[in-house]
Amino acid sequence: MSVVKKWNLEDPEIRRTIERLKWEIAQEYGIPIPSDGYWGRHASKDLGKIGSQLQKRLPLLLEHQKRSMGKKNVPNN
After folding, report:
1. Among the residues of 30-77, which ranges form H helices?
2. What is the pLDDT of residues 1-22, one digit of tens each?
């Protein structure tokens, strides 16, 4: 059985992270970024590439951010 991870998409920090990552992946694959923010004009194949990479990278990125924030909150003795 696979584990489904859910993120609070209403959290502005996570939303910004997803959007930034989406743009980075699109640039890596040479997919033009829509100026109006509407991705519906792109081919499903291109959007699938972005989505699959988001699925792979987002958990790693969020875990890294969580760890780095935890280190900042630790008081020095």
Report:
1. 44-72
2. 455 566 677 888 888 888 999 9
CA distance 24 to 18: 10
Determine what percent of the chain is predicted with pLDDT higher than 70. Answer: 82
How does the average pLDDT of the chain come out, rounded? 82
Cβ(49)–Cβ(38) below 8 Å: no
How far apart, in whole angstroms, are the C-alpha atoms of residue 19 and residue 11? 12
The whole-angstrom separation of Cα 14 and Cα 11 is 5
